[in-house]
Specification:
alpha/beta, Alpha-Beta Plaits, five-stranded parallel sheet, four-stranded antiparallel sheet, globular
Length: about 325
Amino acid sequence: MCKTEIKERKAYWGIAVGNNVVFLYPGQGSQQVGMGYDWYQTYPEVREIFEQADHLLDFSLSKLCFEGPKEELNQDLNAQLAVYTVSCIITEVLRVKGVLPDVVSGYSSGFYAAAYAAGCFDFADGLCLVRQAGEILLDEGRKIDGSMAVIFGLSPEKVDDICQQAGDVQIAILNTPRQTIISGIGPSVRRAMELSLKEGALDAFTLSVGSAYHSRFMEQSGIRFLREIKDINLRNPQIPLVSYLSLDCVPNKSELRNVMVTQLSHPVLWVDLIRRLCSNNIRLFIEVGPGEVISRTVRWIDRNIEIVNTATKGRLLKTVERYRPLRNSNRSK
């Protein structure tokens, strides 16, 4: 059996026992002005990626990342493109430092950077995927009065009951056992927020987003996205790439296409994903990208999980030091 077949079987049948390190990639919401600048000054590979992004997008994404303004960086599509780019950049910096993942996954649009890390496409094709998905979602979002909100302090089961009472709204993201994001038509979302507070929620507030992401109201987006990406050059995952929806490894490039399309209009089962990964003897979780959003959610899910982040140069170097004994332990087996 050739090495490629072994890798593909490994991805299809699941995560092998004994894998030590998982890379988790953040999505929109982790962006911050100044991100990527340290890497840009230090690594020629980083400058090349930023220059490639600026050229492909026909505007200076690098300047937006480095200087803002914050309001422009926080716009949905800009944030998604920026976080993807910086996440890929940090992946390359880690690679230069000898830090490689055994398993990868991503939160919402962070899945594209995870697929990049798994070898499913090159940076340029991934950037195209992020832009196409983002533009389609925003276009479909303009056709409805879409909205999203965060509910704190209630169980997912209780939030689901409330959504059913409120009407055109559903659970979109299970962030932690007591933090749930809902998505749907504006009046129904607001009604669900009111009901949640009456039922004892600690807080509820709307998110500043342009679409009802990860809801059934985005199904047309998936249909359009599938048409748009038919010519994108995809490759089979070279390491296990786990979907936040199915909680399974993506077996091949054909299924990767279906997964990317389906995930647009279905929930992010983040709590279940992290617990699934924990059940496979993962020893170290690394948040690969700007910010610390992923680290905070993981700690809320299970405080026994060891997770480190790469948001700054200092933290990345600490991550490299933490990784070395795991790599050496693997080599000695």
